[in-house]
Amino acid sequence: MIPLKNIHRAICFYYDVDINYPFVENRKTKPIYLRQLFHYLSMQLNEHYLSYQDIGEYLPYRIFSRATVMNSCKQFQNRIDSYKNIKNDIEDIKKLLKNG
Which of 5, 16, 54, 64 has the fewest Cβ atoms surrounding its Cβ within 10 A? Predict the structure, then answer.
């Protein structure tokens, strides 16, 4: 199991954004993309350990419903299918997580 905090930090480090940026309350494309990536990677890397609800409750000040996390993962999978370079980003982030 990979802690959600580590996934969150790796994404922020990789994209060189503030630790709070993916969870700001706005509808701009970049924070939405980073949130979806966080939800997708969290589910992919912790599939047998965490539920959608657990991932949605990661931040106590910004809770996402189970349905929101599920939709987020589905939307991100669609992005992966459409844009092949996203796979490279995911692999790079996974390497960051393995190397600490």
Answer: 16
